[in-house]
Predict the 3D structure of the following.
Amino acid sequence: MARRDVDSQERAAPRAPAEARAEPWTPLWLRRAGALAGALYLAAIWLAAVKPALPERVLPRPVLFFTQVAELFPNAAIDSIEWRARGWRCALGRFDEVDVRPFFPIRQDDKESRFDRAMFFHHRQRPVLVALDRYITSAQNHMRPAERIGGVMLLSLRVPIPPLGETGPRWRWMPLDEYPPSVERRYWYTTSMEARTRRCEEEP
Amino acid sequence: MSRVAKHKSGTRAAAPPGSPGTGAAFEPMAWLRRWLDAPQPIERLVLLRVLVPLAVLGFLSSRLVHADHWLGSAGFRVPDLGGDWRQPLYLPAMPPWAAWTVAVVIALSGLSLVAGFATPVAAAVLALLVGYATLADRLEAFTVTKLAPPLTLALLLAPCGARYSVDAWLRRRRRPAAPLPTTGGSGTIRFFQVFLVTMYSATGIAKARGDWLTHQVLWTHLHDQYQTAAAWLIMRATPAWGWWILQGLVLLFEVGAPLWFALPWTRRPALVIGLGMHAMIGLMFGPVVWFALLMASMLVACFLPEEPLRRLFAAAMTLGRRRADRTVD
């Protein structure tokens, strides 16, 4: 009914003169301030991609962050990177792969997953890797109590990209064991032996 | 002597003295003012009001349904890194109830902006909360969420709820004799137009300075988790040289964007190529579809010629009327 009202209002309304300009609801000073801020914002976007040193020097970091939007895929990828975790199985005394996707439910199957993002940005930052270790260990022991772990090993796989024109199989998530040994593994973090032993001895 | 100049919107208006072509000295400020004030069809603004928040909400939908993991303490949080460049600002996790509240308010304010209900308030709230969420959680901050606050603030400054909106309907109930606005928000439209050109130009230059002139880049980014079924099929069907043509076209379009969109005779081909590029991105790069939709929406709203734009709205209104009549019958 409301829709009909809208439409009948549109029909019943007198046709506008050649140009009936919508009145701005904001005061002139605010529009002028907005125009100035808009011009500076556009300049900052352009500079952040073309000459980043300048906005980095001038803008506070939280503001700069919103201007770093235009540097999109400038370089070729050398390999396709996969981020993975192995867990120290308390019962077996060895590292096995832990499928961490259920612990990071936001876009869990692609590289927008929080695990992939955390590893991508912070794989050389120990405080973040320690926090990931705690989170994954706790989530695994909570969600899969029969497969308790005492710690993790965080690693990346560098999957070679096929040469141009050779498509290869479609991408799919594969367990670590299915990757051939030719796929390079890089290890970024391993929970210490003491911490693994201590956690495994803790009451569930 | 008054001379008639053709506006970008297609309407004609008297050019101020000192404009190029009047014979008088060129006055940049007068030209800029005329360019900024040139009447723009209100439909451009309405299209931006509807499509920009829809694309942002589409992107955020996968985060909103996991608000406790996104902004709350249920999920993994990067600890305070004490000023590290990867963490522009540390904001601690919220309790889950607060995270869910923020998520609900983001969704409601976005939908309210789309419908044009309490438009300025909806735009302000959406900009503020998406800005907060983007800063609070670096892991979920992407181009779409970084762009959303400034773009929504630009809408806030314009009368984007003046027509085709709940606000307009309420206003007409109060003042039925008031004429319907046909133009408005010129400054905001100009901002969006320059924004698009700036984005394309900056990303094009960054690509040219990166690997795009020397390496095949497109191909290498199609082999990870972003790969869609469409991407895989297109990769199988496209010969190797086709990727170089596509890459060259993208680079040429982006680097030359200021020229393509400034010249009237290249604007329409640029619009078609831009939409084609975003369609390919949306089809081939999985979750990047929301960024592609955001950019394509802005391209259409900003650069679709006035006549097809008005015809599009007229067709939508006619369709709405027919549906409403059928419902009432």
User: Anything to note?
Assistant: The CA atoms of residues 102 and 129 of chain B lie 7 Å apart.
